[in-house]
Amino acid sequence: MSDTPKFEVIDRRKFKAEEEREQEQSATTRAETKPEETGALAAGPRLVVPEEPPEPQKAVPTDTAEEGAYPEMPPAPTAEESSQQKSAYDASAQRLEDLVRAQNPAMGPQPPVGFEHLVQQLYLSAMIQMGAGGPEGQRPRVDILGAKQTIDLMGVLAEKTKGNLTAAEDQTLQTVLFEVRMAFLELTNMITLQGVPAPPPPTAKH
Length: 206
What we know:
- With 206 residues, this protein is an all-alpha fold.
- It has a domain at 113-133 and 140-194: Methane Monooxygenase Hydroxylase, Chain G, domain 1 (Up-down Bundle), CATH 1.20.58.
- Helices cover 56% and strands 0% of the residues.
- Helix 6 (144-160) runs antiparallel to helix 7 (167-193).
- The longest helix is centred in the last third of the chain and has 27 residues, at 167-193.
- It is flat.
- The termini are far apart.
């Protein structure tokens, strides 16, 4: 990583808070200094009215609120660093593929990974979490919360890639997302209905 110049961000909110604190102390001092008064009014309580109304709280910008939801990350790599790392990664992946193909001569070259592979991986993960693909004859193991998280990830993917997919990619994603949501609905309906006694059989009419 190249050395980046360090700079200091001055938070002007601190200076504003100090100014407001000094104004409040000044107002309190003026309130405690009683003017010359006579009669019963001098001994009674007096209402202190602030000279200036307090400033309304400003809404936090949406971008700032969203930044707080993400963990603190190191500085992003430069374009040159990313390019060098990508080249090294591709070379390492090619050496690994050559090694595997040398041990398995019948195996052909691996196809490049595309968007459809990502959708397929998420689909398989969601279905396995909902109990599909388990050993035959055994009770399926269901991770319904994990399945919900995977399906929600697919929803995020669909939202963030909207308008940036080909027609085929969008159709694949929307179809798969529909299928896993339907499977989730069927499974959750089965889970929520467990323990509910079955209705009594209808009586024969004479």
